[in-house]
Amino acid sequence: MHSIEYEDSFVKIAGLIGGEEYLKVARALLNTKDVTDEEIASATGLKINIVRKVLYDMFGKALITGIRVKDEKKGWFVYRWRAKQDQVDNFIDNQKKKILDRLHNRLEYEESTEFYHCGNRDCPRVKFDVAVELFFKCPNCKGSLNMIDNTKIKEALRHKIGQVTTDINSNKK
């Protein structure tokens, strides 16, 4: 197997989404324009149902496009698939925006919630209302629950939000 380090970004993204099977399908899509699922299966050695699963997932992510054409030999319709390499940057930007949303939601949660913990690293943090119901006793080890300072978590989230925001803004043309 050759290194994906030097490959097209379309192939790299496919590999990040789904690993080896996605890499093989992505390479087949780049090697032949308007290729059928059967041709991809034949070229990659993957089972047809695996190829279809990968194609439908990539289609759902708008990384490929499919056109329905009539197979003259067999008389039924088949899809011919094509890589949409121009959509890779949009896909990456959308993923970054989703990550940013999740980070903002988590920061909001950390800022608006008081957490309690017993100090045992195998036990969960609990929110104030749960701690009250438990009479400030850990649900796992029954140790005393004390309010914890989540400043470091909030700082880490703010730092990550800053990094992702900078990254998104620097990639805007």
Task: Provide structural commentary.
By secondary structure, this protein is α+β, with helices and mostly antiparallel strands. It folds into two domains: 80 residues, Arc Repressor Mutant, subunit A (Orthogonal Bundle); 82 residues, no CATH class. Helices cover 54% and strands 13% of the residues. It is built from seven helices and six strands. The strands form two sheets. The protein has a three-stranded antiparallel sheet. A hairpin with an 8-residue loop joins strand 4 and strand 5.
How would you name the oligomeric state of the polypeptide chains in this document? single chain
What count of structural domains? Answer: 2
The helix/strand series, from N terminus to C terminus, equals HHEHHEEHEEHEH
Main β sheet profile: 3 strands, antiparallel
Judged by helices, strands and strand pairing, the structural class is alpha+beta
In brief:
This protein is α+β, with helices and mostly antiparallel strands.
Pick out its properties.
three-stranded antiparallel sheet; 7 helices; alpha+beta; Arc Repressor Mutant, subunit A
Q: Strands, helices and their partners?
A:
Elements lengths: L8 H10 L1 H12 L3 E2 H8 L3 H13 L3 E7 L6 E7 L4 H25 L2 E3 L8 E2 H6 L12 E2 L3 H20 L3
Antiparallel strand pairs: 1-3, 2-3, 4-5, 4-6
